[in-house]
Structures are given as structure tokens and as C-alpha cells.
Amino acid sequence: MKKIFYVLMIISLVSCCKKEPTIPGGNEDSIVSDPNNINVSILIDLSDRIDPQTNPNPTMEYFQRDTEYIKAIEKGFLNHIKTKRIITFNDQMQVFFNPEPSDPKMNEFTKALKIFFDKNTSKDYFSSVEKKYSELPLNIYQSAIKDENYVGSDIWEFFKNKVKDYCIKDDHRNILFILTDGYMYHQNTMFSEEKKTSYLTSKLIKSNGLVTSDFKDIIEKNGLGFVKANENLSNLEVIVLGINPEKGNPFEEGVIKEYWENWFKEMKIKNYQIKSADLPSNLEPIILKAISNKN
């Protein structure tokens, strides 16, 4: 009986002395015992949609909106990390372009923006991530605008050949943010299969007669849409930010969203959102909620 008593005393003392590791800005009372590892990717469309000369916006330029969206994504990512015990850290975030811009500095920027948290992460790493994501995205956009070589964004090819390798990790919740106006075009990836295409332009929308309120019926009846780029992306969540239709067709935004929604469904993406190019202050709560996975 004495031996059992001493064993229980030792266990009790060890339990009392043991202290859970904490992180800067975290709350010990909110530490979770069942961590959720997340893998966040950001795919940036660096086509002429970001050109302040071609597509000006007096309220807030589109490249500036993008940089604020990215800051909100980084904020949501770090908020998630701060709900976890250090020993359970296994989370990452990264930025992609497709195709790569011609400026060789872009590789340095994307390398710096690829961040990873594990149990050996230091407290200083949090502030370094905040600094990188507050400065480098603007450098990326300024470089692309200065280069003026807008070759389009090959989103279709990214989904076909890269998304599984780049954006999906086992044992993680995989979230892909796409910053785009919703049009899809690249000179090296333009083809059609029956009436489906690998691209979407305002000209194509008009030529397909999608300029009336019954555009959904026309799309379904004629089998219009994007060519399916992948078979099964059920372990990927996608949030599209920045849909910005050209003026003149009141149904253009609806057509763009219908194309994207049908494409995601075909690729078995169950969890997705498609948002217009709103002010960052309006989209930030949506971004934070999407990352926190709170209904």
C-alpha cells in the first residue's frame, strides 16, 4: 500500500511542475489539445489586372488591395499558430506565381515568403514573418508593374500540373488563396475540348452569348465551362479573391463565378469561396474566418 501511495505522490508532483510551452500573443487558457496543422498557399495572378494604368481604381488600386489581402492571410495564419502548443507546430505558408516573372529577384522574394513552423521555432520568428509579409508582397507587385511584361496567369496549368505537388500536404488542412480578377488566360495554354476551354476572357463570354439573365441555362445547355484540370482535389480548400468583371455586361461577374464554381465541383473541391474585388477591410473578416475554420 505504501508503494502505491509513493507512486501516486510522484505522478502528482510531476503533473503540478510540468508547464505547457506557450507562444507570444497566445493565451494559456485557449491552448488546444488536438492541433490542426494547416498548409496555406497563395497563388498570385500578375497579369495586367494589377496595372494601375490599364485598370485604374481611384478608391484603391488593385495591386494595393492584393497586398492587404495577403497581410490578412498572414494574420489569419499566425492567429491559428497562436492557438497551438509549441510542441504541436507543423504548419507552413508560401506564395506562388505561374508563370514565373522575369525579374530574378522574384525567386528571392518567394523563398523568403515560404515559412514553416515546427516545435523548434523561436519566438523571434513571429515578428520576422510579420515583417516579411508586410514588405515583400509590395515589392513583388512593384517589380511586375515596372517590368510591364504582362504575359497573363496560367492558372489552368497550375491546377493541372502543380497544385498537388505545391499546395497539398498529407495530414494537413490545405488552403489555397487565388488572387485574380477571375479571367483565365495564358498564350501557352489555350485550347478547347468540345465547348469547354482552358481560358476565359470577356470576348469569349460575349461570343458564347452569356450576356442575359439566363446565362446559367445557356452554360448548362451548351456544355460551356473550363476544361477539367484535375481528377480529385477533395483535400484542398480554395478561396478566390478579387473577381473584377469588365464593364458593359451586367451578368459578367455571375458568368465568371459560375465557370469557377462548376470547375471546382468537377475537380471535387468541396470547400470553396469566390469573392469580388472588395476593399480589404470588408474581405479581411472573411479571410480570417476561412483560415480559422469557424462557422
TrEMBL record:
**PROSITE patterns assigned to the protein according to its UniProt record, in alphabetical order:** PROKAR_LIPOPROTEIN
Output the superkingdom of the source species.
Bacteria
Protein name according to UniProt: VWFA domain-containing protein
Species per Swiss-Prot/TrEMBL record: Chryseobacterium geocarposphaerae
Phylogenetic classification of the source organism: Bacteria, Pseudomonadati, Bacteroidota, Flavobacteriia, Flavobacteriales
